[in-house]
Amino acid sequence: MCCSGHVRRSTPPGGRLQERTPVTSIEDFISQYGLVQKIDAFGYLDYLKSNPDAPRKHGKVVLVTADTPLKASRGEGKTTTTIALIDALRERGIDAAAVLRQPSMGITAAGSKGGASGGGKASLTHPELIDWGLCGEMGAIEAAQNLLVSFAEKAVDDGKLDTILVPRVSEVPSRSLRQIAVDRGKGDVAERVVLTPTCELMQIVVLSRSMDEISERVAKMVAGTKDGKAVTFGEFVDLWRITGILGDAVKPAKTETVNGSPVYVHGGPFANVSIGIPTLVSVEMACALHDVVIVEAGYGTDAGAQKWLDIACREYDAQWPSAAIVVTRASTWRDDPDLAWRYPFHVQRLEGLDIPTFPLINLWDGEDDQIPALKATAKELEFRDPIIGNLYRDGGDALAPQLDAFVDAVTNGSMPAEPHSHKGMALVENVRWVAENAYGVPADRVILKDGFAESLQAAEGLCASAGIDFGSLALVAVKSPATMTDNDRAPEAERTVTLKKVEVHSGAGLVHVNLTTSLTTPMPKIV
Amino acid sequence: MCCSGHVRRSTPPGGRLQERTPVTSIEDFISQYGLVQKIDAFGYLDYLKSNPDAPRKHGKVVLVTADTPLKASRGEGKTTTTIALIDALRERGIDAAAVLRQPSMGITAAGSKGGASGGGKASLTHPELIDWGLCGEMGAIEAAQNLLVSFAEKAVDDGKLDTILVPRVSEVPSRSLRQIAVDRGKGDVAERVVLTPTCELMQIVVLSRSMDEISERVAKMVAGTKDGKAVTFGEFVDLWRITGILGDAVKPAKTETVNGSPVYVHGGPFANVSIGIPTLVSVEMACALHDVVIVEAGYGTDAGAQKWLDIACREYDAQWPSAAIVVTRASTWRDDPDLAWRYPFHVQRLEGLDIPTFPLINLWDGEDDQIPALKATAKELEFRDPIIGNLYRDGGDALAPQLDAFVDAVTNGSMPAEPHSHKGMALVENVRWVAENAYGVPADRVILKDGFAESLQAAEGLCASAGIDFGSLALVAVKSPATMTDNDRAPEAERTVTLKKVEVHSGAGLVHVNLTTSLTTPMPKIV
Q1: What is the tally of structural domains in chain A?
Q2: A132·B245 Cβ contact <8 A
Q3: Which Gene3D superfamilies does the entry mention (chains A, B) (predicted)?
Q4: Which residue of A has its CA nearest to B17?
Q5: What is the domain-level CATH number for residue B206?
Q6: CB pair distance less than 8 Å for A109 and B184
Q7: ipTM value of the model?
Q8: What is the pLDDT of residues A329-362, one digit of tens each?
Q9: Cβ distance A65 to A327 under 8 Å?
């Protein structure tokens, strides 16, 4: 091969160098990995950027979100809906694709939860691949985050750190790992282990648009402290050792529905304790390849959707949705009168943001006769006409005839404007804004728990000591997936939101605020 | 597709069902995984078994082993030799392939050790793939073994177990994990974490010839005890959850040298604390595809080679080698007079087993002028003519002209006979046999340390309580990689081997005996 100027050198996994002939299409960025394909999204998006005339689409993002679930392990059917929806849209001649997060293999394998890859007629061709570790992406992120902890231990030995703040991770759930002591019998150092999907490195992979950005973000992660002053990983870690491990993990996987519709799977942060959305590059790549891109965000509208809108769109330049679908099961919405306020709240909230919002009721067997009543209630609530179907039983066929208004909204709406950033807003003010807008609790009923002010001050001090701009961090509300307030069953005028503590993820550019409803730590027990 | 009797249903990873057209060759069992290929070796070997007329080769196994290293982190160059050797053999028109173990990514990534994929002209096309986690095989084994521990914890909660004996694993080294306490502040349960390559599940993957066998072996693993009686995982775990995770990990990877020679990589048990050999199926598959199969066993002849011969061949039906190559660096062999006895001991030991054994001296830069002296010493010691070269600098070219005798021995020797099993031999008698044969220490200088008899008795009791036949377990000597005896520098007549403790790996069918030189636990510190 001659040294022509057209020869492109790319640097995939582990700094491998490859000679490449001139790129002509997405195909040049796709590799087969067993039954799925992996796509070098960083390379493809970079190619589009440096070749403005290269063909591409300008797909619109549709958010699939849901009612707040009654409990963490009970899904409303977002993935089933997402799969049925792209099958139905493609049946109508629209080039639609879906972007999903990778489910946590540990939890699936342990039997604590079913898979998260649809079901019945709304299924993927190889759901077990998605559910059981895909191509090792989660394992690579786990190894890289744990390696950071090992390097932090070495930094303690070397006198560069005296306290480690970054947690070890495990993809396999084990409640006894919530609180551990390492160096038993010697130092007996207290530590905690969290589930891999909840860690900062997973957030970094979700939010970054290049390996260099990942490297820069890992460098900014706070490893721990020395004499009370924050020390970042950039101060003592060879960053190529971390990015080397992540070489394949940064590539979205492509699979398809049983009807052949394209589905990209990438990134797996939990929605209640993290950011709950697939990687930004997987969505952007899908938008360059398809006209409509259905993005599934985790748990309810108060969790993943809030995070897509207020974190990804406001602070990380993700695309504001052209429409939203809010999934519910008939029983979630209506059978518990104390909680029946939540579903209409979510629908109205999204409509209030100028996002055309379509209620979708995912029926289970034996519920078909509820359709007239559900329609009547939706009308009373001044919803758009609800989309109703048994998606497990009927798949996309249940949806296709009901999508006229949805398709009209998505295809005829103009590309949405960019939302304004909340950067610089004081943290408590920002939480109050979220409480008011996403949970329906006015600012004066946001309560600071004893110790919160100290936790906030400590977080601000930690950032200041390492030259991190605390005001530039985006807010992540950490809460139970099943509640939006301290008590969702309380009358509206009495609902409160209480802030418990603050944790900085400076590499990801995030600051976590735990609400009182947050779990102690995201390390479930096998049940 | 019609329901013809010719359609074959196979059940690869995670119980996926695939329709397959009739199988015609190995190609039907190969899938691309990025830059490497993965081969369904279980499926291919099963196909050969049920199609006795299908074309296949009957390749001969050659063992590449080495002098005992001066320290654990200093390699003699076995992988470099293996790569150069297949390149040289293929240059001579012989269809040769190599089978390597997968290096421990944690240690490579941590910088505690270089990679283990050759170097210079004796390199793989994508060494970084092999060194940095391959296709997630090690990660999958880690997740599966840790999931077993989580299930054991659940069994404790359910009253089925009171003590857990199976350790958690980590691919990432961290010395502080050697001894940990989980449930800190509540139960404060003492535990240990070991490196993934050292765990029983890795041994099971290495020794099994089908997913059913893996499943049966996992079922026989001792999870822990209840009222002093052993409880196996088969008593309380859904085994499909474990085999589901291992779906892709059981498939050997195929890559190649920079000269295009085929290299299979599969399994990564350490040689000093485990069995140190690649998976049996990867070697058997390679033997069906090539005429000469070079198998690299870990560390010195006293470690991986001893284990290939005495465990894999004697007890697990692996092929007895048709020749062996014992690699040394000139400096290892001769620069330390106290340890210079070890290299000739290894060469003579293998010759004594009727294995044509070829000394190979892997020169470093500046050592070419030592060749005459090395040859003279080899002659004095009555070795076969040594093969000498700078393999990093010259690759296979350094070897090709020196291989006449080697090729003659391999191609003209008859297929070796099967060795007799040691099953039923008393454990201490078996260790004495190994000490005498593999370490040169006579039976009367094998010492039982205080506590050993109790440890042995406890292991026998544990097995008896679960109906496991202790006498059927194959012996794994657990020792330092750098020594064969309690003190290799002592005069021959004073060298001893001391037995410290016994540990049962009943799923793998192994019993470990720790010698005094064994490390406390295989969890290194990052250096």
Answers
A1: 3
A2: yes
A3: P-loop containing nucleotide triphosphate hydrolases
A4: A126
A5: 3.30.1510.10
A6: no
A7: 0.91
A8: 988 787 889 999 999 999 999 999 999 999 999 9
A9: yes
